Amino acid sequence: MSVLEVKNLVKQYRMRDGWKGRTLTAVKDVSFTIESGRTVALVGQSGSGKSTLAKLLMQLETPTSGVIELDGKPVVRRGAGLRQYRSDVQMVFQDPFASLNPYHTIAHHLARPLILHGKAKGRDEIDAGVARLLERVRLEPDMANRRPHELSGGQRQRIAIARALAPEPKILVADEPVSMLDVSIRLGVLNLLADLQREENLGVFYITHDLATARHFSDDILVMFTGEIVERGPADDVILNPQHEYTRLLAEAAPNPEKRISA
Amino acid sequence: MTTTTQDPALAAGAATAVSRRVTLPPMTPKLAAGLLLGGAITLFGLLGPLFVGNPSTVNNIGLSGPGNGFILGTTQTGQDVFAQLAYATRGSLTIGLIVGVLTLFLSAFFGIVGAYAGGWLDESFSLFSNVMLVIPGLPLIIIISSYVPDKSILLVALVLAITGWAGSARVLRGFTLSLRNRDYVAAARVSGEKPWRVLGVEILPNLIPLLASQAVFAVIFAILGEAGLSFLGLGASGSFTWGTMLYYAQNGLALRLGAWWWFVPPGLLIALFGAALSLINFSIDEIINPKLRNQTRATRKKWNLSKSQLKQVVKEDEL
Amino acid sequence: MTISEETQARADRATTARAHPVLTVDDFSVEYRGERVVQAVRNVSLELGRGEILGLAGESGCGKSTLAYGINRLLKPPAMITSGGAHFHSREGYSIDLGELHGEDLRAFRWDKISMVFQGAMNSLNPVINIRAQLEDIFTTHRPEMSKKERREKCAELLERVGVDRSRLLSYPHELSGGMRQRVMIAMAMALDPQIMIMDEPTTALDVVVQREILREITRLRAELGFAVIFITHDLPLLLEISDRIAIMREGEIVELRDAVDLYTDPQHPYTKKLLASFPSLTGARGSFVRGHAQDRNEEVS
Fold it and tell me: In CA terms, which of A213, B39, B185, C134 is 20 to 30 Å from C248?
């Protein structure tokens, strides 16, 4: 049972504007919890700060202030502590075309995290590990010697998920994992994530702009607007009975064919 | 879906064992022409000197055209032009090679490492590159020349490399900056890769086409630069290069005397080799920018259109 | 409008479509030539009614954009129209074969009768010219007889019609938000009062809130001015909300073309059902899709 706690996270960027500078606050005083076995969705439009939040969670940026704690211990930003964090918290990126290096084979992408986190050593263990990962995301093992450009978007995203699973993490951050995929493939990938979450008892942080899939796949929803969390609660409550004005706006703005046929 | 017939681990093993194929440019007539021409000249430079006579031997014939056992005639002092050409090819190619390699390393270091590291290192490397870019090359070379009257090929190569790497560095820096922000680099960091590995294993391989193109560019610059320097008398006057041949031809009033066999061959070889390298560079560009592949007449042929259809297509293109 | 009034209006428009269409596309096919020949559009036939909103739905690569470009004669080689054609039937009574327009005629026809809002249109505005100049450009090209004063007034009117205050006329594109830029693109498409507007993913890159506003503008303008719209997108729920009829495209063919509500409540083709099952319902029971059961969940690896 793992808990990732975010407390009062703030991220400011200093923008240069001629002689004087401006401060852009991308994330303002954000707090929430991600637990094993539960999916939390972060719903926000572009510019809300959700991508910045993802980067902060993955230690790709350092917060201006605030704390991130994994299992009660504050996060360490370098050395062995960082290595351990990376082994516990992993990420699936949004763009399946950009998150895989076109130069390397799929096997390289999957083998590296296995080696780095000590999950496999030596040729045989690594090969077995790569094959196992491919199986977990329901892909054929002969995909290992292909390169990213030979695969479809859906396949690439499954590889990205496999790569994230390699270190056997406890928390998975999924940053808009299906928004760049073809419509009919999206649910397949989301269902895979849901299945994996159940099987591994992962804590999943699902970042998206799509309310419908957020409601469908998560237990709780956080609504983000200009850097702040404006509403939070169980998925159904937030969507069907929104309290904050912005959430109401979002719920009303989302395309909903039901409107046309219900009185 | 296909059923697995092999042991999964074995299949994966075969995969990781496969060596990483570098993307080679597709063989097109352009590339073939470039490689053939460049290859032929390089071969001439490598093997030519083994088969010709001594280029420095002075004969009593004086200035004479092709014939009398001299394929390309003789210089003013009766030296064998063909022999000189062979040694000159070797000399110029050596300079090209040294400058190419040196420029590659200098520009890669100041361009790529700086851009990847970011922060003050990037700022200082970038500043240094820009300053080197702006320093006028020719006056610098003249100053260096005045201190060292007898220059070796190595010195000339060094000077050319020092004045030429900055432009390349800027290009590499720009590209590295864009690569650094790609998702797969972030993904590698998130996986736990150390910074040096990210640079060497994730970023560098994607820079190879650009590096190759810049290296070829540097060689062209070196050969033309050396030719120019030598013509002004600032080159490696003690050695044989295409440039020094032109210098001596000019001094020997070859143009005025109509001794075409003296200055046309080196000039022609400079032009041909430059053209060959440029053709190779165009092909490398096509890897970097696949859009370029569709523009040629050769690709249009593949569309299998009738003459009238093609005409209409061209007309509509202009609308 | 109540639900029943709306349904009636839709049915009327559908009948008109069959009787007096503004655009007919017959057996339209487009190929991409190259090392392999790719059939992008296969024998597509459809009719667009006057003032109708026809949704063209499909996933990437299905040919919907190619179809739109083909109708508008915007295809560049190696794309070739290999069969069929499109005919435009003006409200003034005459018909034009779009394949037979060339040169000056084509130039004059474009934008005047059929206009297009392209994908990523927000980035199609010239960054160094202000909005008014770009709008005026349309009039100087197509209505040279207008005086400068008339032109300026028309530009201001156009902008207000799409809900942008006329004080933004002298702004540059980078000074406007994404939503505003898209409205400017729609204004530009409407400038000459076209009878058909083709919109290729006009709201895809926008915030869902801004998207809702833009859609409201489009439906309002359609009601006011009576132009027909071909709305191309992969977002099926969106189409289900605003279209009169919807055409589902797959691999270059139209697999189903029906009234929007009928398509939603009673889909016939398996691909339509599959698409509908890909969109979870926002307000319906949790775990159910727009249409389809959890058991229909597509496990196929693609």
Answer: A213
